[in-house]
Structure formats: C-alpha cells, structure tokens
Design a protein that fits this description.
Radius of gyration of chain A: 26 Å
Oligomer: heterotrimer
CATH architecture of the domain at 142-330 in chain B: Orthogonal Bundle
Helix content of chain A: 25-40%
Strand content of chain A: 15-25%
Structural class of chain B: mainly alpha
CATH architecture of the largest domain in chain A: 3-Layer(aba) Sandwich
Strand order of the largest sheet of chain A: 16-17-18-13-19-20-21
Number of helices of chain A: 21
Largest interface: A-B, 77 and 53 residues
CATH topology of the domain at 142-330 in chain B: MetI-like fold
Chains: A alpha/beta, B mainly alpha, C mainly alpha
Largest sheet of chain B: none
CATH superfamily of the largest domain in chain A: P-loop containing nucleotide triphosphate hydrolases
Number of helices of chain B: 14
Number of strands of chain A: 22
CATH class of the domain at 142-330 in chain B: Mainly Alpha
Shape of chain A: globular
C-alpha cells in the first residue's frame, strides 16, 4: 500500500480535523517536496514498513467515549527511526498497542488502517497476528524493571519466543541464537543463565532489546525504554538500541517524552497531544523551526546546561538574610554504613544559612545522595559523626527541641503520588502541620494561609484544596507539597528529586516554585538530583557524589559547565541535548563503564567555594 | 491508563539503588546455571520454626488439661477403675494407677518425661481399650487419613487454582467465566455440611455409596482388587465432599492473584513476543500467580486438616477423625492427646515441606534475598 | 442508542462506586441480617420453651411432609420436631443467633488482639517484632480445632462466651500478620514521611494516618475470621464438645447424626441447621467479596 498514484502520497502527514492549518501546512511543504528526490535527508527512499492512515482508537468509559487516538496518519520507513513524543495521555502508547493489536479491553480501533509491509494488520486472524508479533513487529514495553518473567531464566525467555514462531528447535541452536542475541546488545552470553532479579535495570533493558531483535522484525516499537534508568545507563542503552536497529535495518518507533533524548535518537518526530498528531517531520526541522506552539513548549521545557535559564528573572533585591549565632547545618565527619555497603563516606561541611543558598547534591542512584538527604531530615541516623542543626545535635534534643527541628527542616519528596494520605482531602497535608507546630491562630487563619500559599505556587485554592489526592495530577500534588513547605516557612528544605516523577512540561514551573522559596522567602535548600541541567540553573553550589564520596564540588558554572573529574564529565556527557548535531554517546565516546577504574581513582576536584558554605576537604 | 502511571512510577522507585555505572557486567556471573538448591540460612530458619511449632503444640496439649479444675486423670482413672469392677478398693486402685501413670511426680519431671515420650511417639496406653498402646491405634488410623488427605488436598489445590486462573484468562470459554463465579458462592460452606448433604443424597437416599467406614465389612484388608475397589468406593464421598467445597477458596485466591499478574509488564511482553496464549497462561501467568497461593497453602493447611477430621467423623471413616471422636465419647484422654499431637505434627511437617519446596519454584528466594 | 447504553453503563459504574450499593455486599449483609431477624422474631413470636427436651412429640416432620411412621406435620410445630421432642423452630431461633454470636465475638477479640500486636510489631520493631512475627507464624499452622478438642475434653462443659474466647485464642494470627505487613509498608510511604515531617506523634501516625487506610483490610479480615471461627465452633459441636446445654446449630447436627437421623430419613432434623449454616457462610462470603471489590477496584472490572 504505497499509494503511488495518490495525490498526497508524498507527504507523510494528512490533513486531519483537529490539526491547526498552519502546522499541517508547514509539514506538507516541508516534507512533501523532499520526498522521492533524496533531498537533504538521505534514506528517505526507504520503503515504508508501516503505514497508518486515519487511525482512530476509542475507549468507551462510563463518562462517554474517549478518543485516545484521532485520525493518525504517518509512515515509518525501513531503516528510519521515528519518535513519538507527548505527555502521558497523548496517545503514543495507545498507538503502539493498536499496531500490536494489544489494546486493553474496552479500547478498540474505531477507524483507519494499519498497514505493515503491505499487510492490513486489522484484517489478520488472531493466529496470524500472533505470528506477526515479534517476527514482523516487535514491541518493547515500558518498565524494563518488570518486563521479564521473574521465575524464568533469561535465555529461556528468548528460546520460547523463537519456538513460538519457528516451532521446536534443538537446544544447541536455541543456545547459539540466544548467545548471539545477547552478544549483539553487549551482554555476556552467561547473562542468559541468570534470572531477571540478578540483572541491573540497564541489563534488563538490553535483554528486552535483544529479545525484540531476535527474529529480525521489520519494525521495532520501543516504549520509553529508558524511563527508569539514570542518564549514564540511558545513554548506553540507547546506543545499543540504535546499533541493533541499524544492523537489522528495520524501522524503529521510539516513544518518549524527552525532547533531548529524541533529538539524539530519531530521524523523524511525531508530536502527539490528546490523541492528535500536532506536528510531524524531520527532527532537525522541528527542532530548528517548530511549527506548533505545543512543540515549542516541549522543546523549551528541556533545561540546558549553560543555556537560557528557565527561572523567572527574580526581583533583584537580595533575599532576606540575617546573622545567625550558629551555622544552620553542620556535618561533622558524618558517614553511613549498611552492612558491607558504605552509603556515605565521612563528609564534613557547614552551611551558614545567613544568606539563603541552594546546595545541589548530584549523582546517580546508589551514589548516597538520598542517604545524605535522609540523614539531614533525621530519618536516618549516621553510623559515625555528628549532624548539628543550629549548633545542636538533634539526637540529644528533647521533645520540644525535636518539634522545633521538625518545623525548621522540611522536605519535598520524590514521589508526589505517595505524599498524600488517600484517606484525607489534600488540605489535611497543609493544615495539620500548621496546627501541630502552633503556627495557627484559628481556623480562619489556617484557611487564609492555605489559600495564600496555593496562589503563590500558582494553584487555585478553591479548585485544589477540597479535593482528594487521586483527583489531582502529579504536578499539582508536587506543587501542593511546595506550598506546604512555604506555609511552614522552614529554615532548611530538603528537595529530594522533586521533579523526577512529574511531566516534563511542569518541571520548570515546580523548580521555579522551589527557587522562589529561596529567592523570595529566604529558605536554604538542599537540592538532591540526578539531573545536572536543573542543578546548573538552580543551585549556588554543587557537590557531585559518586559511591558515597564527593568527587567534585564547586559553583555550578565550574562543576557542570566545565567538569574536571571524569565522573562529572561522564554525567554531563550523558545528558541528551535537544540538538541532533551535538555528539551523544556516538561511537566516538569511550565506553563509559570501561574507564571505571579511572573514574574511581581520579582525585577529588575542588572547584572553588561560595560564601556561606564550606566543604571540608581534608 | 492514567491509573497505571503512578503505579509504574512507584515500582521504578523500589528498584535497589545498587545499580552503579557498572552496568556492563554484573558483579559476578556464575560459570554455570545455578543449581536448584535451598539456601542454608533459609533451611535453618524453617527447621527452627518447625521445631518451635511442634514444641509449642506439644506443650499446649500437655499444659491445658493440667489447668483444668476437673482433673482429667481422675475422670479417666475413675472410668478405668469402674470398668475393672473394683468398687471397695477404688481409692487404692486409683492411687496405684496414678503411680503407674507417673502422675505423682513433680510437674517438671512429668513434663520432661512427656516431651521425651512424644519424641518417641509414646503416648501411653488407651484407657478405653486398655491396654492397647495409643501409638498402635494411631498407626492403624493414620494411613487412611493420610491417603484421603493427600488426595483431596492435592486435587482441590489443582482444580481450584486452575479454575481460578481460567476465570481471569481472556481466552477461556465464556461459560467458564460465568459459571464458575456463580458456583463459587456454594464453596463457602465447610466440608462437614457438604459431606452431610452428599451422604444423604448418595448414601442414604440413592444408596450408591456406603454410609460409613473406609472399606466394606465383607472384604478382607489386603492388596487385592476387591479391597482396593471397596476402599475407593468408600473413600469417594468423603473426598468429594472436601473437594467440591474447598476448591472455591483456592479459586478465589487465584483469581485475585491472576488479576494482579495480568497487569504485569512481563505478561504484556510475553504477549508481544507472539507466544501462544496457552504458553502465556501457564508459563507466565499461572507460574507467577501460583507462588502466593503456595504460601497460602502452608498457612491454610491447619484449617483444611481440621475440616477433614470432621468429614471423617461424619462418614465414620476409619481415620484419625473417627479415632478422635470415639476417644472424646470415651473420654480416652491419652488418645485425644496423641491424635491431636500427631495431626498437628503432620500439619507442621506439611508446612515445612511446602516451605522447602518454595525456593525451588521461586528463584528470588533461592538466591537468598529473603533468608 | 449509544446514549442509552452509556447511561446504563454509567449507572452500573456508579453502583459499584458507592460501597452501600455493591450488590454482593448488600445480598450478603441481607442474609446475615435475616438470621439475626430469625432470632429476634422467634423470641417475640414463638414460644421458646419448646426448646426443652420432651416439650413436643418426637420426630414430627415439617408441615406438608410425612415421617416414616406416616405422621403428618402439624401447625404447632411448622418445621417439625427432633428426636427428643424439641421444636425445630424454637431450636433454630435460639441456635442460629448463638452460632453467629460465637463467630462474631471470637473474631472481634481476635481482631482487637491482632490490631494491638500488629501495630506493636510494626512500630516497636527489633526483638518484639521478631517474637510476635515468629509466634504468629507458628500459631497459624496449628489447627485450632485440635487444641480446643484437648481443652474441652479436659474442661467439660463451657458457656458460649468461654467458647468464643477460646476460639479467639486462634483468631489473632492472621490479622496480626496482615496489619504488621501493612504497617511496615505504610511506614515507608510518602504520607507517613510527611506526617513525621509534620512533627506528628506516634499515636497520630498510627490511628489517624494509618488506621483509616487499613479499614477495608480490617473489615475483610474480620469477616474471614468470623467464617473461620464459626467453622471451628461448629466443628467442636459436631464432635460433641462445646456448650452441652445451650442449643446451637452444630449441636443440633451432632444430636441428629448421633441419633441416626440420616438413616431414619429425618432430614429436617439435620437439614434445617445445615441449610441455615450454609446461608450464614454464603452471606459472609458475599460480604467479603463485596468488600474486596470496594477496596480493590481492579476486581470490579471482572465482577461480571
């Protein structure tokens, strides 16, 4: 179904009802003319392996029919990589599942065609569809952590896939093929003999890629393959995926929400919003000249190291500061050991707190940064050393001292979904501590303060406060937690990965809310994150943690803008930039894990200090 | 869709933080596939639990009668003395008997003796059928109970879990998905009631099956067809009355687990791999959903055994249930103690075996993540 | 057309959302209430002295039936009499609520103990936790029936309340395990962290933050425990133990079987209590399924 005679055959987008005219126009002229001539982009001549025409997917619900995908039309060509980008609920995963004919029950394709290499997928029998899965179109679902059967060895999960399509094969052949497949994604064949729980997240995702490639399908659909992985692993996995796809020469659909990752990984981009294709075309064209405001918003939501700050230029006035008799927070050779694992090596620093500062602690998972946060909050007791808040050791404080400490040290935690008790309306989370700390004069006062702080973080109090948590989005909840912190006006705030579970478009808003806490309300902040780009913009000082040790510390412009320690450099290099021309994990870069020894042995890099914060560097 | 999002995110968070940049190779890859073995720490743990269970049960059985205001020893000795017909010398005989049963020793001595004896399966002599050894009575009844129990428990577990799985599986026939839930309502009834009903219909009314006993009075126990047929004929109704009502418990549990497993990513990937629906059902869904069911089996076994004791009593089946019931009627205390102890011991051993088997079917336990 | 179907679908959905309109819960509670009503109405409208031995002719069938001796049922004893001349209606009007009472009381006590032990284990941790955990693991594998058999054959006759207390001694393990596990997982949850950050004292975290979220589990566990307790009680009664002089359903079945009611075709003697017990168990199961559906939305989708 290549539609040679079709007047519109050249373009890969079709005018649909919901797409604003201008956008469609751009795409038409942009890609329609290039087609067939080779054009500036090569491999455009590839035969389309997947053709979607006017694809619509409906989900009947009690509230009426939800159109999860509306009249989607596009082509994926052999050897090409197409990105589907959009927020959760935009229909990108639904489209993938529709292609696989694996839509969850009430959902169904209500219109349009899905053509895979000349075969109408919607007309296949159940059995033919089963055979087409994996052998012709492979789907790597989201959540690599749980994608493998926990009770089966890895290789068995590759073998049953082969035998399901090719019938029984002898063990030797199966073994050879599974070893080859694992080898092709950079895994040792012995990995196949392990059970999934013995593998790390990155390894599991590689196994999934090996699985997707094992029958050489024409099309691979990878649904957020790296969403659960940290930046370094993400880069490695994406590299593997690209290499494997290039080797097989198949088409690839990459589903995601991160424009930077897309820029580094795909040739063409489809931007989806509420089930509609709002923009579609060559990735360079879209990044260089986005046609739709939504695309523009998506691109600008990616924080860049060194780029324009996403923070609102604050009122120039210096944040309210005051002289303190004792430093706000002191770490005196604090360390934490769990059994054989040292989560945090002895660390000493002093945060004066006279002038509010944002101190960023960056590192991958397992670097000890969350342990550090937990120690500051008093949830974890250090194995050795002393933590002093305003000169007093919390562990020796009485009940009143402890309550005072609780009031003065607050937190914004990672998971906004878990932070509200599902039993209560969300106002409970704000009103309870206010009352508990004796800050409230009366009920009216609480109410007034709650409304005030909600407005400050940009939420409508009447709309939000009387709701139950499950009725709010993750972004709204996280903003409420920030509002809660603001309401209590603590002296120190620990923000532990505050935006890692929030949709990309909201991250900037929440971070600027948090930034405002320092800037306008004079709260010192410990910002714990794996995201160097946001740390770059938000913080006054950065400490890079690697296996429980600070390996580099200094002002963000130095540490992140111009890293010295190889580990910091690795982290910075792993950030996917929304710029296809910037090298990212190409064949040029050294295999990151290969130079592990050299990362571990590199000396501590001290990149300068900032007033009000002293790191003791032995 | 929107519901699933937070769940997935939370799950990602639970990932152990040990994944460093060392993603290329695991810390150590075993040279060979891990052998099926039980981690020693786990084994010791389970063994201690087993011993503790037996000890607590034995102690309870020993201590309870001694707390009673009515001395059961007096009752049973009184009955024995009365049975002997010696009326004038009752007190002296009673005293002699007390002496011979060691009841005049200090309590702690009695307790230690008792513990030693039960380890040797020596529960003393039956007072009702004096001087038969209690252990001999139990040895005679035990095979019947074991046979009936192993058979009915396994059949129930198998059928129940299979039906529970089929209730959820999207490829099962519509009939299964509608009929079983309806039938499930009746499976809340304990086996004793279903036993009564079955007995009335098939034994009393239709007379297809015998009313009582484990084999016919006319057949001689032995390894021949006539006897085997008689045993099957007699065992059918008791087994059926257990099976038809307890499968529902497993089916319900399995249904719940299957619903959870159905939403797992690995099931979705299995489907995306183009596996046959049956392979997905058995190898991916049931294989994982059965794990908590096996744990539940270990927890539930006590109640199931108790249910069976009652069924045996109704059907006057020559097993432990009937032995226990007769002993209660006769106030034959050593037998009550012995039977209770042996049944509890059997239960504890069954739990122990299930616990031992568990690491063999769940690799995550096998690798000692949960010692 | 589509409007109609979606409205019907919407109505169906709404029916599940409100716990009080869950059909299973509703039916189950109805059955249980019917048994309670039987007891109450029986006390008001029927002469309960007929429960004493010899107060009525022997072995009369229910109205409309004949017994083996050819005697028809009489209106004075609408559902017959038993082998020792007790009126069946009076018997069940007293016996059925008694059986239910034992189950609920035992489960209530077990639940209370479970809440205390579960919270203690989850919060105190350390040795206390180990002790409670091991003890509940051990006790859960011991069949209560057998220990109770030993107890009752040693102590002789007991009252209903004592029997409930005895059974409660074996009804605390599963709530303890359940609550302990839930408490441990909730302790790590974000909202408990937030409560700790809010300076909440331990009792606030236990009873205001955690307990409300445990309610569906507690209810489910409670009902399951009622079932188990009744099964144990009936089991004891059928073995001829338990209260000797107070009518219960299990005791009636025991008398019937001992008197050979099955062979003599006195089906009403054992059949009526059996059916009542079955109704009780079905009611409890339905309540439990209903609660399950309310607390676990995923089950609802399959709830036909």
């Amino acid at each position: 179904m290549t539609e040679p005679g079709h007047p519109d055959g050249g373009s890969r987008i079709h005018e649909t009802a919901g797409v604003p005219g201008t956008t469609a126009e751009t795409v038409h002229t942009g890609s329609g003319r290039n087609r067939g001539r080779g054009g500036p982009v090569d491999s455009m001549t590839g035969r389309p392996v997947l053709t979607l025409r006017e694809l619509s997917v409906d989900f009947p619900t009690p509230q009426g029919v939800v159109q999860a995908v509306r009249k989607l039309s596009l082509d994926v060509r052999l050897g090409r990589r197409v990105g589907f980008v959009g927020e959760s609920g935009s229909g990108k995963t639904t489209t993938a599942l529709a292609i696989m004919r694996m839509l969850a029950d009430p959902g169904h394709v209500s219109g349009g065609t899905i053509d895979l290499g000349g075969v109408d997928m919607l007309k296949l029998s159940e059995e033919d569809m089963r055979l087409a899965r994996l052998s012709r179109v492979a789907y790597i679902p989201q959540g690599a952590m749980n994608s493998l059967n926990p009770v089966m060895r890895v290789e068995q999960q590759l073998w049953d896939a082969i035998s399901a399509h090719e019938g029984r094969r002898n063990r030797k052949e199966l073994m050879r093929r599974s070893d080859e497949a694992l080898d092709s994604v950079g895994l040792h064949p012995r990995t196949g003999r392990l059970h999934p729980h013995e593998l790390s997240g990155g390894m599991k995702q590689r196994v999934c890629i090996a699985l997707g490639m094992i029958l050489r399908p024409e099309l691979i659909i990878a649904d957020e393959p790296t969403s659960a992985l940290d930046v370094v692993t993400q880069r490695q996995v994406m590299q593997t995926l690209r290499e494997a796809q290039a080797l097989a020469g198949s088409g690839l659909i990459l589903i995601g929400h991160d424009m930077g990752l897309m820029a580094q990984s795909v040739d063409e981009l489809a931007v989806l919003r509420q089930g509609e294709l709002v923009e579609y075309g060559d990735i360079r064209r879209i990044l260089g000249n986005p046609g739709h405001p939504y695309t523009r918003a998506l691109i600008s939501s990616v924080p860049l190291v060194g780029g324009k700050s996403f923070l609102r230029p604050s009122s120039a006035r210096e944040a309210p500061g005051s002289r303190r008799p004792a430093p706000l927070l002191t770490f005196d050779r604090v360390s934490k050991v769990y059994g054989k694992l040292t989560a945090l090596h002895p660390l000493s620093f002093t945060l004066r707190g006279d002038v509010p500062k944002i101190i960023s602690i960056v590192g991958q998972s397992g670097s000890g940064k969350s342990t550090l946060g937990s120690i500051v909050l008093g949830f974890t007791h250090p194995t050795a050393g002393a933590v002093r808040f305003e000169g007093r050791d919390l562990r020796r404080a009485g009940a009143a001292g402890k309550l005072g400490f609780r009031r003065d040290v607050q937190a914004v935690l990672q998971d906004p979904y878990a932070c509200f008790n599902p039993f209560y309306r969300v106002r409970h989370a704000l009103a309870y501590p206010y009352r508990r700390f004796g800050l409230a004069r009366d009920e009216a006062h609480i109410r007034q303060r709650m409304e005030e702080v909600c407005r400050t973080v940009g939420l409508d109090p009447d709309l939000v406060l009387p709701r139950y948590p499950h009725q709010l989005s993750g972004g709204q909840r996280q903003r409420l937690i920030v509002a809660r912190a603001l309401m209590l006006s603590p002296k120190l705030l620990v923000a532990d990965e505050p935006v890692s579970m929030v949709d990309a478009s909201l991250r900037a808003t929440i971070l600027s809310n948090i930034y405002d806490l320092k800037d306008r309300f004079g709260i010192s902040i410990l910002y714990i994150t794996h995201d160097l780009a946001t740390a770059y913009h938000v913080s006054d000082y950065v400490m890079v943690l690697y296996r429980g040790r600070v390996v580099e510390a200094g002002p963000p412009g130095q540490v992140i803008g111009n890293p010295e320690h190889p580990y910091t450099r690795l982290l910075v290099d792993s950030i996917p930039w929304p710029d296809p021309d910037r090298p990212w994990g190409g064949s040029a870069g050294p295999e990151p894990a290969a130079d592990h020894a050299h990362v571990a042995d590199a000396p501590f890099a001290y990149r300068g200090s900032v007033e009000g914060f002293e790191l003791v560097t032995r | 869709m929107s519901r699933a999002a937070p769940r997935d995110r939370r799950r990602d968070r639970r990932e152990p933080p040990a994944t460093d940049a060392s993603d290329q190779e695991p810390v150590d890859i075993p040279r060979k596939a891990a052998r099926l073995r039980i981690p020693p720490g786990y084994l010791v743990n389970r063994l201690l639990t087993l011993l503790l269970t037996i000890w607590i049960a034995a102690t309870l059985i020993w201590i309870i009668p001694r707390l009673s205001p009515v001395d059961p020893a007096d009752i049973m000795l009184g009955r024995m003395a009365a049975g002997a017909g010696a009326v004038q010398d009752a007190d002296r005989i009673l005293d002699q008997l007390r002496e011979s049963f060691g009841l005049n020793d200090p309590l702690i001595v009695q307790y230690v003796k008792y513990l030693r004896n039960i380890v040797l399966f020596d529960f003393g002599l039956s007072t009702a059928t004096f001087p038969t050894k209690v252990s001999a009575l139990i040895a005679r009844a035990l095979p019947w109970t074991l046979g009936l129990m192993v058979l009915s428990l396994l059949i129930t577990f198998f059928i129940g879990n299979l039906l529970g799985a089929l209730m959820v599986w999207s490829h099962s026939p519509k009939l299964v998905r509608i009929a079983i839930p309806a039938a499930m309502v009746f499976t809340s009834i304990p086996p004793i009631l279903s036993g009564l009903l079955l007995m009335w219909i098939f034994a009393a009314k239709l007379q297809w099956f015998p009313l009582a006993g484990a084999y016919g009075l006319t057949v001689e126990p032995g390894w021949d067809w006539a006897f085997a047929a008689s045993v099957l004929h007699h065992g059918f109704l008791p087994a059926l009355s257990i099976v038809i009502v307890t499968f529902g418990f497993w089916a319900l549990g399995m249904r719940g687990m299957m619903i959870t497993v159905q939403g797992e990513d690995y099931v979705r990937l299995a489907e995306a791999k183009g596996l046959r629906p049956r392979t997905v059902l058995y190898g991916y869904m049931i294989r994982n959903a059965i794990l908590p069911q096996i744990t539940a089996f270990a927890l539930k076994i006590g109640l199931l055994v108790a249910g069976q004791v009652l069924v045996e009593r109704i059907f006057a089946y020559n097993g432990m249930g009937k032995l226990l019931y007769d002993a209660i009627l006769d106030q034959d205390f050593p037998v009550i103690q012995g039977v209770s102890y042996v049944i509890i011991l059997m239960t504890a051993l069954a739990v122990f075996l299930v616990d031992l088997a568990y690491p063999l079917i769940d690799p995550r336990i096998r690798h000692g993540s949960d010692g | 057309m589509t409007g109609v179907t979606t409205r019907a679908a919407r109505r169906r959905m709404r029916r599940f959302d409100n716990p009080w309109t869950n059909p299973k819960l509703f039916c189950g509670a109805g059955l249980l209430l019917a048994i309670v009503a039987l007891g109450l109405l029986g006390r008001l409208l029927w002469d309960l002295d007929l429960v004493f031995t010899g107060s009525a002719p022997l072995k009369l069938p229910p109205i409309g039936f004949e017994n083996l001796r050819g005697q028809p049922g009489v209106p004075a004893h609408p559902i017959g009499t038993d082998g020792s001349g007790r009126d069946m209606l009076a018997l069940i009007a007293i016996g059925a609520p008694n059986t239910l009472f034992v189950g609920f009381l035992a489960s209530l006590i077990g639940m209370g103990a479970g809440i205390v032990l579960g919270f203690t284990a989850g919060f105190v941790g350390g040795r206390t936790d180990d002790t409670i955990r091991v003890l509940s693991d051990v006790m859960i594998t011991i069949p209560p029936l057998l220990i109770l058999v030993v107890f009752q054959s040693a102590f002789g006759d007991v009252s209903l309340t004592i029997m409930a207390l005895l059974i409660a001694g074996f009804a605390w393990q599963s709530p303890t395990r359940l609550i302990r596990a839930q408490v441990l997982s909730m302790k790590q949850s974000g909202y408990v962290m937030m409560a700790r950050l809010s300076g909440a004292p331990t009792h606030h975290i236990m009873f205001r933050e955690m307990l409300p979220n445990l309610v569906p589990y507690l209810f489910g566990s409670f009902i399951a425990n009622v079932t188990t307790s009744i099964v144990t009680a009936v089991g004891l009664e059928v073995l001829g133990l338990g209260p000797q002089r107070i009518p219960t359903l299990g005791r009636t079945i025991y008398d019937a079987i001992s008197a050979g009611a099955l062979i003599q075709n006195l089906w009403w003697w054992w059949g009526i209590p059996t059916v009542l017990l079955a109704v009780m168990f079905i009611g409890l199961l339905l309540v439990n399924l209903g609660l399950d559906e309310i607390s676990n939305p995923r089950l609802r989708r399959l709830g036909r």
